[in-house]
Amino acid sequence: MPKVLVLHGPNLNMLGKREPDVYGHETLDQVNNRLIKMGTEMGLTVETYQSNHEGHLIDRIHSAEGTVDAILINPGALTHYSYALRDALASIAVPAIEVHISNIHQRESFRERSVTAPVTHGQIVGFGTFGYELALTAVVKTLHVFD
User: How many distinct structural domains can be found in the chain?
Assistant: First the structure.
């Protein structure tokens, strides 16, 4: 079965508690469980990982080479300034889709720019946690995981 790695960056472990008016009331465990179930129904193996530490996320990206077929990543605040995370994504031949719960392009000016988006296959923003489901569908439809 094709494997998808879902990476959640800093503070996403606080989903459901942190600014629920922006990020919703669903917890990270609920999101992950839904993605694993949906992935199974789509014929995918979904592995999830969350870290508040940039280096841990980079290590996980590096280890994805040759072990997963695609990455879904919500880099959290690292989106806006982590050239190290950007370079990690660019250094592997695994396609990545960037996901954001809120529409980063309609928020504070410091959140509008993504340094990671240019090295991803695409970006899904502003659909709440449903964006992760859209990204899983994009893996199947546009990245040709089953070829």
Answer: 1
Q: Which helix (H) or strand (E) holds 142?
A: helix 130-142
Point out the annotated binding site for substrate. Answer: 74, 80, 87, 101-102, 111
Angle between helices 54-64 and 83-90 (to 10 degrees): 10
Which entry of 56, 100, 132, 144 is annotated as an active-site residue?
100
Binding residue numbers: 74, 80, 87, 101-102, 111
Annotation says 100 is catalytic: yes
- Per residue in 65-117, pLDDT (tens digit) is 999 999 999 999 898 889 999 999 999 999 999 999 987 776 667 666 789 99
Q: What is the pTM of this model?
A: 0.90
CATH number at residue 50: 3.40.50.9100
Q: Does the active-site annotation cover 144? A: no
